[in-house]
């Protein structure tokens, strides 16, 4: 698809600067035709280049000259020459045609994922496995797109989206009054600890935590509220032996045998012989994570391609020997 098909660009001259051209409109196709004739110095060759008939080309040039009120070309039987006015006008026409063609090419490169930029804000727990893996696949498939990911707390994910500092965010949102939230994956809480606490079981009931010291994220975090909900639904009064502001701290406490850390499954990755992670059940506490964007901001082609990759990925299974953790709190 050429520029004329994509942009029926109209260039309207200012009435104050050129009163003689009041109400005169010169379209991109007129300028494109003029530049082509000047470059080829021949109507037939220019018409072939533009893929239009010679009469159609002649009509475009005539319309342009009529709108300008000046002769631009001198036609002979063998070639075409520019008038002094035509030579003066050519430089501006070349610049305008070139600028538009470059703009069209940039848009095409962006929509076809040959170049561009993608900015994402996400919860820290997603920045350990899911997003790095998705980003790696995206980078391999679309080398011309630069990608940046910032891990921030839940409220800041929404804040960065509303301030348009990122193309979209991925996180938990309690209200969709100011943003659009499309669910993309479900995260669940798991228990992480040494075999002294978890033994060889593959799951742990919430009421069994009543006899264990719990390592929880600090008050005010999304994870903490989910932990309190699980304890409440299980009918137990939790013993929060330790509170951590950062998930690596919670992991370190668990590794030291100080208790059982309760963390999102998306944050628990990587083998470790000294820790185990198991599903927490009865109840199973889950949270829906969403793609967050402003309501007036459509998903860009790079963002759509990234989210397609992310949807095809699955969170790592919680197994007996998986126990990594991400780099923050949420």
UniProtKB/TrEMBL annotation:
One of its GO terms (molecular function) is DNA binding. Keywords: DNA-binding, Transcription, Transcription regulation. One of its GO terms (cellular component) is cytosol. The keyword Ribosomal protein does not apply. PROSITE patterns: HTH_LYSR (PS50931). Belongs to the LysR transcriptional regulatory family. This is LysR family transcriptional regulator. It comes from Aurantiacibacter xanthus.
